[in-house]
Amino acid sequence: MRLWSLHPAQLDRAALVSGWREGLLAQAVLLGRTRGYTRHPQLERFRELGHPATGVITWLVGLADEADRRGYRFDRTRLAGEPDPTLRMTVTDGQLDLERAHLLAKCRVRAPEWAARLEAEPARPHPVFDVVTGPVAGWERAAAP
């Protein structure tokens, strides 16, 4: 499961589509609708919120908005509630940089043209995140590049 902190516009097709699918799984986990993935470390930052499922729903809307811009159809009826347009979370610059490097490594293999585009721009956060200075998140399990 990868719930990207990167802006959805920076995700290649595979990352955007899998992020949507994995975000829906995260929503189910946080609503207690599945027994799998309940201890997944990427859910920690959403569990810190007053309403974790609303956090994931708000995050998912960011992906759906990007999908709309690209002409994809993500089924918003699968969202189990309304997003919170005022919700703000933080992500460290260290986490953002690690995720960019992780995505870049994947794109060099599966979408070289996307990798070239990604290399030309700095990491940007998903609209729900504010960037703060700091190291890679404690919940992150991906190896540093």
Strand-helix topology:
Elements: H1 13-30, H2 44-47, H3 52-70, E1 89-92, H4 93-110, H5 112-119, E2 129-132
Helix pairs in contact: 1-3, 4-5
Relevant terms:
single chain; 145 residues; mainly alpha; two-stranded parallel sheet; 46% helix
Structural class: mainly alpha
Shape type: globular
Low-confidence stretches: none
Number of helices: 5
Main pleated sheet:
2 strands, parallel
| Spatial order of strands in the largest sheet | 1-2
Q: Rounded to an integer, what's the Rg over CA atoms?
A: 15 Å
Total beta strands:
2
C-alpha termini separation: 19 Å
The helix fraction, in percent, is 40-55%
Produce a short descriptive summary.
The protein is mainly alpha-helical.
What would you say this structure looks like, in words?
- There is one protein chain.
- The chain is mainly α and 145 residues long.
- The model has no long low-confidence stretch (mean pLDDT 95).
